Amino acid sequence: MGMRHLPFLLIFLVSFGLAPGALAQLTSGISGPDVTEGARAIGYRAAYDPDADGFAQRVHVDQALTGALMLRGVVQVRRTDDRPMDFDFVQGELRWQVTPDNAKWASGLRLDARLRDSGRPGQVSVHWLNQIRLSDTLRTRFAVIASQQTGAGRETGTFLQTRGEVSRRIDGGIDLGGEFYNSYGTASDLLPVSEQSHLVGPFAALPLTDSLTLRTSALFGLTAGSPDATFRVFLTQAY
What we know:
The chain is mainly beta. It has one helix and 13 strands, in the order H-E-E-E-E-E-E-E-E-E-E-E-E-E. The protein has one helix at 6-17, and strands at residues 40-49, 54-64, 69-78, 86-97, 105-115, 122-133, 138-150, 159-170, 174-186, 189-190, 197-207, 212-221, 229-238. A twelve-stranded antiparallel β-barrel has the order 1-2-3-4-5-6-7-8-9-11-12-13. The longest helix has 12 residues, at 6-17.
């Protein structure tokens, strides 16, 4: 393994060398809008928050329905005070690629529906997804997300988030970059900046085989309302 793998190794070691397990509950990523007809994949994600000793794992399955529509099913479990592995949520996602294939600025929409148990509220979300190819090796993604809680114990209002990343592809198909995740509270009652959650950090994605990709990331909080640090590992297998 050459020097080109060093950034990936550093993030991996920080994520799992300094942590006793593997983000608390932020196992979601920054979706691109593109859909490839016939594409199928299965993914595993683990995330760890050392301050809260929070550990979450999820499995998802992707299936392209057409050249513009992708369906995903997600099941997540988490560590609780009572159990090392407890059901967290099940979620269905439908992604729609709005712009033509190979658009320099690609855009799409994603609709999510999440269900929980034990009297915890569910959630429905709409994502506006964007990807801009700045060059042959440089791209950026950003998303605007509006969510509402459903069911028992729900909070009223539309919750707002933004997410984004910038990445560069280097030799060997490795992607290196930085990403951010912002949560603002509800549209009608935005939280003070100090109480909002703002996370930033590096990531690296490494193709292990022609169909298996490993991505590691480390996120660090910028405000009092953010986790101090969050570490994540994603595995995606196309089939």
